[in-house]
Amino acid sequence: MLKWAFIFFVVSVVAGIFGFTGIAAGAASIAKFLFFAALVLFLIFLVLGLTIFRTMG
Fold first, then answer.
1. With contact defined as beta carbons under 8 Å apart, do 17 and 39 qualify?
2. Which among 4, 11, 32, 57 is least buried, having the fewest CB atoms inside 10 angstroms?
3. Any idea what DSSP says for residue 26?
């Protein structure tokens, strides 16, 4: 998921350089959403991993 966020970030930067502001804004919002979704999933799995490790140990 972070890979796709990075791809959309690069697309938005390139579109911004060439003056396609609508495409750049859309790609940037998609990249931001994917980044925060990956961050939330990471935190959920981190908490689950710590709680499962604590109960098994």
1. no
2. 57
3. H
Query: Which residues in the chain land under pLDDT 70?
Result: 57
What are the φ/ψ torsions at residue 20 (nearest 5 degrees)? -85, 80
CA 21 and chain centroid, separation:
21
Letter for the amino acid at 10? V
The predicted structure's pLDDT at residue 54:
79
Measured distance CA(13)–CA(10) in Å, rounded:
5
Rounded Cα gap, residues 26 and 13, in angstroms: 11
Rounded to whole angstroms, the Cα distance separating 51 from 47 reads: 6
Amino acid sitting at position 32: K
Look-up of token digits 């697309």: 11
